[in-house]
Amino acid sequence: MAKKSDGTARIALVTPAGPTPRTGNRISGNRWARILRASGHRVTALDRYEHERCDVLIALHARRSHDSIRRFHDLHPDKPIILVLTGTDLYRDIHEDEDSRESLRLADRLVVLQRKGLDELAPELHEKTRVIYQSAPASSGRPGNPERQFTVAVVGHMRPEKDPFRTAMAVRSLPRTSRIRVVHIGAAFGDNYLRRAEREAERNPRYRWVGEWPHWKTRRFMARSHILSITSQMEGSSNVLCEALASGVPVAAARISGLRGTLGDDYPGYYEMGDTAGLKRLLVRAESDPAFYESLARHCAEVAPLVNPDREILTWQGLIREVTR
Asked: pLDDT tens, 156-175?
């Protein structure tokens, strides 16, 4: 394996282009590039691999990076490939798409972003799979007085996998005494989503859609919210979950594998995916029952060490050493 004598490596990091530079996958790819560069490696960030000189290929997304993985393997059969698996990989594509399955076979190491990702992989793949939790630095901020307004943040672009209007639907018919207000941050991908968000905001006084914000502004707002609502139907992990945990913000979460792999099976803040009434009950209880809200905050604080940046840095450093020996 060719690498520099000082232990550093040339790394091609492939993150397929998305509809906006502020997708979760792009945020993850940028963070990994910073980690690897700070560790002394030379990192080239790419949308796709062509023939760039490198010692290691790291690719995000089994299906969308398949061409890059196949090309790198054909050109450099003796060099290692690390494949990071997304939610659509784990919970859809690898079960029905041959290109995705070939990416699994060609990769020397697989990375899942929470421990329950292993459950979706065939047992023979476990030996070459590593769990690397995504991380986030803390963001300062405190929520306002919940007696005046109980702020529920929804952070995510409008795509089918995110079930983006579930929280808005859940707060349409709350008691008049409720102080819950939902603020939705994220781009509308398509005219249908745009029109629906505008209609919802017009008809639902508890819902406000603000569009896409810069990452720093989104993080600051989230840190000042009382709770984050995550309604995704599939997640390989969740950057916004990591950011909420790092900032001490409790979450209301769909009971899906990609969130349970970080929060644990016993987290008290789950609702069943797609259950609008269940999410409504959860949010009302979080607003009105201080002991329950404190139990959410306490549990989130207990799992927050999983998203510590030092942990992610050390695991990535160890993986690169492992494949470049």
From this structure: 999 999 999 999 999 999 99
Q: Do the beta carbons of residue 164 and residue 187 sit within 8 Å?
A: no
What's phi and psi for 210, nearest 5 deg? -110, 0
- For 54-66, write each residue's pLDDT tens digit: 999 999 999 999 9
> pTM above the 0.85 mark?
yes
pLDDT in tens, 250-280: 999 999 999 999 999 999 999 999 999 999 9
Q: Half-sphere exposure of 274 toward its Cβ, with a 13 Å CA cutoff? A: 4
Separation of alpha carbons 241 and 245, rounded Å = 6
Range of the domain at 242: 150-306
Query: What is the rounded (10 degree) CA torsion for 286, 161, 243, 198?
Result: -70
Query: The tokens of 204 are what?
Result: 């639902």
Same domain membership, residue 40 and residue 120: yes
Q: Are strands 251-254 and 270-271 parallel, antiparallel or unpaired?
A: parallel
Number of domains in the chain: 2
Q: Judge contact between 264 and 157, C-beta under 8 A.
A: no
Asked whether residue 100 is domain-assigned, the answer is yes
For residue 248, give the amino acid letter: G
CATH code where residue 248 lies:
3.40.50.2000
